Amino acid sequence: MTEPSQRFLRALKRLPVDRTPVWMMRQAGRYLPEYRAQRAQAGDFMSLCKNTDFATEVTLQPLRRYSLDAAILFSDILTIPDAMGLGLSFVAGEGPVFAHKISSLADVQALPKLDITVDLDYVVNAVRSIRSALNEQVPLIGFSGSPWTLATYMIEGGSSKDHAQSKAMIYAQPELMQQLLAKLEEAVADYLHQQVLAGAQALQIFDSWGGSLSHAAYLDYSLAPMQRIIASLRARPGLQDLPIIVFTKGGGQWLAPMAEIGADALGLDWTTDLGQARAQVGDRVALQGNMDPAVLLGSPAAIRAEVGRILASYGSGPGHVFNLGHGITPQVDPEHARVFIDSVIELSPAYHQA
Ligand code: CP3
Fold first, then answer.
1. Are the C-beta atoms of 349 and 18 separated by less than 8 Å?
2. Which residue of 4, 196, 226, 316 has the fewest CB atoms within a 10 Å radius of its CB?
3. Does the global pTM surpass 0.90?
């Protein structure tokens, strides 16, 4: 049997395991009644993130319920722009909203260089507290948004369907966009480094909006900054072999270039066929994903069948971390999440026989 605390980390390095490890993006969240109760006690989402004990508690909640193979830091990708002074708030029903937006050279130049241990001390403290509370049961994932994804929120002032202003900046003011991305690159690299120093054992970069770019723009404005971040991290003491996952939502057509940026694993959304993706990336990277979270709204039998289909699509051998293709949604019945996780545990050993 694979040591449970090693299953996820071994799979990211494409080493043999006894079964496919599984975790869920947004596994701590509103579909859990205990999460909603904790958030009500905290008052709002950012207060939940900023209180070390609360952040630790909600990180552990899904692990108490399910046999998950990894924990993920409870925080958000928008902590960096908030720390840079943009004034983040979460408006009920609207998602994140920034008090200040980025549109000019003066705006970009005014963004401060972050000292992570001071400006984002609450995140570093949460990582340290969670790692200690986990007691080596399962590994802890740290994370950040990609520079492009963070830039879209900073330019649009919140969520956006088409990222029109961000894309306009690419084509109307490419140097300004590169300056903004360069500032974010530095902050993201330092942020991820401090998470590792505080105890994160793997890192995931969420490139949630890379998929809204053209092929050429994706390579220059989303992938290249992530590649530079990974290179910067790899050059730091102790980080050479740290497992790094890159998740570009909607990135299925870019797997070949993504496999070359120094990441250990690529996250896939549900629009990509896992078996075809494996054939494309070969032995260069592990793959993470990729069940449509909407499947969790179906029957237990349908969930189990879809888990079986995805396992068969990947086929035998190591290098697969089971996950959803995007975050679990608030409407999901927690018992359906259990069926998902238990199905991976029951059905996957057949794909890992020596
Ligand atoms: O995965 C986890 O359990 C760890 C925690 C985590 C959260 N956000 C908590 C959260 C992680 C890894 C994120 C990442 C994140 N945040 C992303 C990248 C992943 C993705 O979904 O593409 C993005 C784009 C954000 C920005 C963000 N945060 C939005 C757009 C929203 C509002 C929309 C929504 O889902 O409510 C958030 C809020 C947020 N972040 C919640 C949680 C649990 C819900 C807040 C609440 O309790 O009301």
1. yes
2. 316
3. yes
Expressed in angstroms and rounded, the spacing between residue 155 Cα and the centre of ligand 1 is 18
The closest alpha carbon to 104, from 50, 177, 49, 48, belongs to 177
- Classify the C-alpha dihedral 212-217-220-221 as positive or negative: negative
For CA atoms 308, 314, 318, 324, give the dihedral sign: negative
Do 101 and 154 form a contact (C-beta atoms < 8 A)? yes
Of residues 351, 324, 325, the one with CA closest to residue 340:
324
Element (H, E) at 244: strand 244-248
pLDDT digits (tens, 9 = 90+) for 135-184: 999 999 999 999 999 999 999 999 999 999 999 999 999 999 999 999 99
Closest CA to 266 of 294, 230, 221: 230
For ligand 1, the distance from its centroid to the CA atom of residue 45, given in whole angstroms, is 10
Class of 4-352 per CATH? Answer: alpha beta
User: Is residue 74 lining ligand 1, measured as CB closer than 6 Å?
Assistant: yes
The mean of the pLDDT values for the chain is 97
